[in-house]
Each structure stands twice: as C-alpha cells, then as structure tokens.
Write a structure and sequence with these properties.
- By secondary structure, this protein is an alpha+beta fold.
- The chain has a single domain, classed as Ferric Hydroxamate Uptake Protein, Chain A, domain 1, CATH 2.170.130.30.
- About 30% of the residues lie in helices and about 25% in strands.
- The strands form three sheets. The protein has a five-stranded mixed β-sheet with strand order 3-2-11-9-10, with no helix packed on it.
C-alpha cells in the first residue's frame, strides 16, 4: 500500500498526542510518590511512639536514624538478640535488627524518644522491672539496667539514644 502526505500528517498528529500521554503518566507517578512521602510523614506525626514503633515504614520515609546496642545477660549467660526482629516480607518496623549483634536500628519517619519497651513490643517479648524474657524477679533474683555503664531505674521506659550501650541483667541478688 502506498502512503500519502495526508497519511503522514494524520500519523504525526496522533503520535504527538501519544508522547504527551507518556508525560502525563510519568507526572502522575511522581505526584503519587511525593504524596505518599508527605502523607506518610503526616500520619506518623499523629501516632503515639508505641504505635509508630509497631507500624510499617520504608527507607524513603526515614528522617530519624540511630543505633543503640543492647546486651541481655541472664544468670551470667549472654542472650542472643535475633536477627530480623521487626522485619518481615510484608513490613519493616521503625525499630528492628538486621543481625544478632545486639545493634538496634531505629529508622523512623519522625524523631521520637523510643524506649526499650517499644523495642520489646516489636520483638513480642516481655521486659519490665519484674521480668526479662522468661526470667521473673523473685526473692533471690533481681533485674538491673545500665546505660553506658551507669545504672538506671527506668527499665522499659529507658529512652534509647545513638550509640547507647544498654545492658539488662537478671542475676542472683547480692
């Protein structure tokens, strides 16, 4: 079949519209991404610290990023803090671990005073002045907490800061 000049004009007219539709789609995707980031930051600011700790987040939303270190000692035996606490295929919580080194990653869309209690809530384990994991205070045992070598009595309410060295000990009373 033989093309004419009129066919070329018609083809150019429609191909021009096709290129504009690509720009509209790209613009819509960018606008949606920006909207999610703004909405994510806004919605995070209305949550309590515990609700935020238990929510899911993404790396692009991270505005607050710290790494405290936690050691748990029960009857002189260091307990393993597992890798991937707070991480699943469907969700990454703002408080999580990547390995079993004891480093806690706090990567939140807003700066907050996250506590040990928030970490244990994400982990699904118990920690307070009367219990650490499965060890319960009794007449012969006690729980102590130190932050950077100094004793604290805030237990699950202990606020975590960047590079804090936190040690929770369950041991025989002296």
């Amino acid at each position: 079949m033989h093309r004419t000049f009129a066919d070329d004009k018609t083809m150019n007219k429609y191909s021009h519209k096709k290129s504009y539709s690509g720009w509209w789609i790209a613009g819509g995707v960018v606008l949606a991404a920006v909207g999610l980031i703004v909405w994510g930051n806004h919605s995070a600011s209305t949550l309590t610290t515990r609700q935020l700790a238990l929510s899911c987040t993404t790396d692009p939303l991270t505005r607050f990023h710290i790494h405290p270190h936690l050691t748990i000692v029960v009857n002189n035996a260091t307990q393993t803090i597992p890798a991937d606490i707070g991480i699943s295929l469907a969700c990454m919580h703002p408080i999580h671990t990547h390995d079993d080194s004891g480093t806690i990653h706090i990567e939140s869309p807003v700066a907050r005073d996250f506590t040990l209690g928030d970490f244990f809530a994400v982990w699904g384990k118990t920690f307070n002045q009367n219990q650490i994991l499965n060890s319960v205070v009794d007449a012969s045992h006690t729980i102590t907490v130190t932050v950077n070598g100094s004793p604290v009595d805030t237990y699950e309410n202990t606020v975590m800061h960047d590079n804090d060295q936190i040690v929770i000990s369950y041991a025989v009373k002296k």
